[in-house]
Amino acid sequence: MRGGNHMDKQLPELKVNMLGRFSITYGDQPITFKRNSATKAVKLLQILLHSSLTENQGNGGISRAQLLDDLFGREELANVGNNLRVTVFRLRKMLIEAGLPEYDYIVKEKGVFYWRSPMKTDLDVVRFVELIREGEQAEEKAKKMELWEQACRLYKGELLPMQSGEDWVIMNSVHYKEKYSKALRSLCEYKKEQQEYDTILELTDTAMEIYPFDEWQSVKIDALMGMNRYKEAYQLYDATSRMFFEELGITPSERMMNQFQEMSERMGRTYHAAGEIKEDLKETGV
């Protein structure tokens, strides 16, 4: 991060979360902004933190043109430059009123804006990306999976869900989701080989909550079948197929259909037609 040489080692760490929610903690103290504080100032803070800490080993920044675009986008404003100055001023004031030490925080050099702080700033996105990268570089499979498990547990949801309509958030969100999904698939395959089914259940529960239509249910069904918990696997299949039909008007994928076939056979029941399935569900009250 820029200004690293001027950091005060005595100050508590500033912890920032952007995955699944936005929160800031300074030491043990949660940082909250007054209700009337302009959302523009909070958006500016999010943009500065993300661009400064995720790029160039924490020495990133954002050009004035890009910042104006990300912050004001398609808004028709007579004087965006003035609006930006006002927002920067407001943000500095808000940070100090919220309990952070007196400092500049927002620095502009050669047309580039940076986040600078007297304390170390820890951003969950940075840790997530680092763990994924370290996992990719690890030669030993067990080490790779250990790092990816840490990354997946850190991923509490999409980037800044409250700002999910912002272009810069959408772009980065897609990128992080890709990393998460890829790591989690490999991790679940590995845990299946190790027969660590409980871990798969735990990890897929989170994934299903974040991405209900990405068929993580199928990975969970696999784990439940591996544990001989066929009834639960069957109930999850049924709930998932109903949800897919009600929400999207589609049937489950071929993979899930095959799982259903396997479950049916193992439970001593084989269904040949959708009508029979429905009849049976009515009878069993599932």
What CATH calls the topology of the largest domain is Arc Repressor Mutant, subunit A
* Gyration radius over CA: 24 Å
Using DSSP, what is the number of strands? 7
Secondary-structure arrangement, i.e. CATH architecture of the largest domain: Orthogonal Bundle
Residues in helix, %: 55-70%
Element order, helices and strands?
Answer: EEEHEHHEEEHHHHHHHH
The CATH H-level homologous superfamily of the largest domain: Winged helix-like DNA-binding domain superfamily/Winged helix DNA-binding domain
For the biggest β-sheet, the strand order reads: 3-2-1-7
Largest sheet: 4 strands, mixed
| Shape annotation | elongated
CATH class of the largest domain: Mainly Alpha
Q: How many structural domains can be distinguished in the coordinates?
A: 2
Low-confidence stretches: 1-5, 270-275
- Tell me the span between the first and last alpha carbons: 55 Å
Mean pLDDT: 89
Q: Which key terms come to mind for this protein?
A:
single chain, TPR-like_helical_dom_sf, WH-like_DNA-bd_sf, Serine Threonine Protein Phosphatase 5, Tetratricopeptide repeat, 7 strands, 2 domains, Arc Repressor Mutant, subunit A, disordered N terminus, four-stranded mixed β-sheet, three-stranded antiparallel β-sheet, BTAD, alpha+beta, 286 residues
